Structure formats: C-alpha cells, structure tokens
C-alpha cells in the first residue's frame, strides 16, 4: 500500500505494516495535522500540494502528478484526504483547485487503473472515484477550479464539481466529458453533474459526441464561468474567492446543499450497484479492447 507522507504542517498516513496511531477513513493510519503558528500552512504529499493561508481562509490545492495529473488510485486517495482535512480545519473557508503541471489541469482518470486489472482492483478504484465526487460535489466549503490546461473526462468532472470555474483563455486547451470517444460511458452521476451545469439539451449533445470544448465554447455553454489570461488564472481565482467569502458561510453552505443534495443522494442510494455496473462494464472484452486501442493511440500520437 502506498504511503502518504505529509511534512511540515501536515499529517502522515502509512501502510498497515507501519502503524503509528489510530485508523483513518481510508484504511490507512493517520497522524493528524500539526500546524505551526504562522498564517501559511503548507503540506506536500507526493501528488497533492496544499497551501492554506489561514489569514484569508483560502487554501490552494495543486495537482502534481506528472506528466498529466492522471487520477490514479493513489492520487485520488491523497486528494480526498487533503479535502477532508481542509473541510475539518476551521481556519479554511474556501479551496482553489489548480495544477502544478504546465498546460494540463488533469488528464482525467488514469486509464491504466481500468485496463488489464482484476475485478477487485476495478471495484477499489471506482469506489475512490465515487469518494472524490461525493466529497467535492457535497463539499461544505466554497470551491473554485482554476483550470490552467487540458481537462478531459474525470478532469472536467472535478472542475464541474466546484462552485465556480475560471479557465485559462488559451485556444489550444480543451475541456469536456469525452468518454464516448474512448468507447466508454460517463456514469449517471457524471451526467447529472453536467446537466446541472449546462442544462439537458447541451448535455445530450456533449455526452453523446464526447465533445471537448475550447475555452471560448466552454464559456458559451456555461461549462466554465470565466476566462482569463493564462498567467492570471490563480490570481483571479483568489480575488473571486475573496468576493464569495463575503457571504456568510452558513447561508452559502445551506443554499449549496439544497441545490446539490438530491444529486449526491442518488449516488449514495446506489453506490454498490454503481460499482458493480462499472466492474462488469469495464471488464468486458470489448471495453478492454477500446481502452487498449485508446492507450496505443495516445502513445502513437507522439511518434
Ligand atoms: C452502462 C453504464 C455503465 C457505467 C460504466 C462507467 C464507465 C465509465 C468509466 C470511466 C469514466 C472515465 C473517465 C475518465 O476520465 S477516462 C480518461 C479520459 N482522458 C483522456 O481521454 C485524456 C487522454 N490524454 C490526452 O488527451 C493527452 O494526454 C493530454 C491532452 C491530456 C496531454 O497531452 P500531452 O501533453 O501531449 O501528453 P501525452 O499525450 O504525451 O501523455 C503523456 C503520457 O501520459 C499518458 N496519459 C495521458 N492521459 C492519460 C490518462 N488519462 N491515463 C493514463 N495515462 C495517460 C500518455 O499515454 C503518455 O504516456 P507515455 O507514452 O507512457 O509517456
């Protein structure tokens, strides 16, 4: 089991052979955070960097999983732990998600986690995908996606799960739920998240074609809320967060919950069936063949 080590203002999760303290939610052992007294608390695990400024209440969570921030099981585990920790931290009021990798927000789910593995592995992976969406879509604190690069499929879902999306105005970048182009199907909760953001008709076209939108097209359909020059993405996200934080937390939080809870509850009511569906679907020979061809295509593009 991979170890999650956070140094400085951080906590440490270790595999079961290295037990150090009581259990945490993810079957790993956690030493809970120890923060220093200054206003900035940084922690960096291998794949997620967290920088919390407790004077403003704003945390910046950076994806750092080169080359393309694909969401592997380890990435998702570290990501959900970081969000949980921030949700429990009273000095944090809002979270900005962005990427430490140039030109890529996230390449989405790690296809290698869905290819050539056992049914048990697919189930474990899928539960971690559900976990991150449930955490993000129902997150109590304000969230902004500062989308500084490509954002297909799972990367788009993470952005869609935030309260506000600011994207770099670089015409080369793309964002969208492109699953059908891989020969797979966005599950119902990906679809619900898209419908809740862009409306039913746009989602029909978007999901069936697996459309990837340029930033200006994404703005037109409401998939993102704002475009800014690439170098201003994080700065604008911080300014925007400051404006949102002028709203009393409890009022904003209850309003968000009223709007999103029914969508979250749909998955909560059928998590096991959804996992079974995923495992059966992804284990099919035809789906494995599609994913294998897609991986080959990604590699051959470079040659
Ligand atoms: C009946 C209903 C049942 C329901 C069942 C539900 C099933 C649904 C299942 C899952 C939903 C899926 C969600 C997803 O997120 S799937 C992932 C979709 N992602 C993509 O399509 C993106 C693919 N990547 C790219 O387009 C590009 O890599 C890029 C634009 C992000 C970056 O381009 P570039 O900078 O040129 O980098 P490279 O292409 O050269 O990539 C570098 C390296 O990384 C590998 N790689 C890229 N993306 C992924 C990925 N998502 N997973 C794993 N690996 C990835 C790429 O292959 C290169 O590898 P290398 O050759 O070994 O270096």
Helix amount, in percent? 40-55%
Overall mean pLDDT: 89
Identify the CATH architecture.
Alpha-Beta Complex
Q: Alpha-carbon distance between the termini?
A: 34 Å
Which blocks of ≥5 consecutive residues have pLDDT under 50?
1-37
Contiguous helical run count = 10
Classify the beta-strand content into a percent band: 15-25%
* H/E element order: EEEEEEHEHEEHEEHHHEHHHH
Widest sheet: strand order? 4-5-6-7-8-10-12
SSE-based structural type: alpha/beta
Summarize the structure.
This protein has 303 residues and is of the alpha/beta class. The protein has helices at residues 73-88, 119-137, 154-160, 188-198, 200-209, 215-221, 233-244, 249-268, 271-283, 285-300, and strands at residues 4-5, 10-14, 29-34, 40-44, 48-53, 58-63, 94-99, 142-147, 151-152, 164-168, 175-176, 226-228.
């Amino acid at each position: 089991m991979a170890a999650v080590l956070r140094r400085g203002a951080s906590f440490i999760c270790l595999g079961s052979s290295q037990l150090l303290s009581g259990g945490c939610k993810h079957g790993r052992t956690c030493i809970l955070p120890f923060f220093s007294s200054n206003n900035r608390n940084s922690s960096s695990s291998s794949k997620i960097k967290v920088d919390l400024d407790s004077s403003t209440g704003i945390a910046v969570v950076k994806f750092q999983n080169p080359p393309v921030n694909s969401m592997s099981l380890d990435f998702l585990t570290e990501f959900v732990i970081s969000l949980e920790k921030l949700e429990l931290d009273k000095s944090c009021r809002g979270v900005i998600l962005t990427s430490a990798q140039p030109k890529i927000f996230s390449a989405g789910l790690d296809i290698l986690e869905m290819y050539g593995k056992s049914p048990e592995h697919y189930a474990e992976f899928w539960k971690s995908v559900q976990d991150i969406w449930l955490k993000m879509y129902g997150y109590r604190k304000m969230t902004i996606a500062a989308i500084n690069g490509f954002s297909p499929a799972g990367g788009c879902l993470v952005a869609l799960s935030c309260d506000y999306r600011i994207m770099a105005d670089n015409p080369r970048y793309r964002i969208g739920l492109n699953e059908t182009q891989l020969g797979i199907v966005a599950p119902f909760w990906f679809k619900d998240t898209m419908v809740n953001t862009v409306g039913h008709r746009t989602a029909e076209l978007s999901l069936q074609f697996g459309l990837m939108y340029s930033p200006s097209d994404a703005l037109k359909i409401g998939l993102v809320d704002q475009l800014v020059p690439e170098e201003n993405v994080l700065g604008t996200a911080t300014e925007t967060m400051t404006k949102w934080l002028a709203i009393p937390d409890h009022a904003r939080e209850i309003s968000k919950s009223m709007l999103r809870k029914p969508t979250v509850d749909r998955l909560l009511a059928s998590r096991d069936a959804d996992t079974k569906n995923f495992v059966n679907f992804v284990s099919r020979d035809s789906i494995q063949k599609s994913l294998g061809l897609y991986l080959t295509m990604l590699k051959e593009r470079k040659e």
